[in-house]
Specification:
This protein is mainly α. It has 6 helices and 2 strands. A two-stranded antiparallel ribbon has the order 1-2. This is EF-hand domain-containing protein.
């Protein structure tokens, strides 16, 4: 009986994780050269390659993600953009750095 309860608990946790897995973009999918930054070319290539956006749409999205307008998107910028999109921009929200440190 204990084994079954443990299995059911694990299954429930995995289901919850899987249901939220697509909510935060995987930074490594965009950062092809693994330099810790997403260039416009990397972002546009990923978005057009997966047919999620046209080239012009991808460029417009990248511009909105590039909060400091340095022509690259850091993991922190990507996370903050996702937070803003979700309406989670208050001081209690966790940063990408905090999230990575806790894993």
């Amino acid at each position: 009986m204990v084994r079954r309860a443990n299995f059911l608990m694990a299954a429930a946790m995995m289901t919850a994780l899987i249901s939220h897995a697509d909510q935060l973009p995987d930074f490594s999918l965009f950062d092809v050269d693994d330099d810790g930054l997403i260039s416009e070319d990397e972002y546009v290539s990923q978005q057009t390659g997966t047919r999620k956006a046209s080239e012009s749409e991808a460029i417009a999205k990248f511009t909105r993600l590039d909060l400091d307008q340095n022509h690259t998107v850091s993991e922190e910028e990507l996370y903050r953009a996702v937070q803003a999109w979700r309406g989670e921009t208050d001081e209690t929200s966790v940063s990408a750095t905090d999230l990575a440190a806790s894993q």
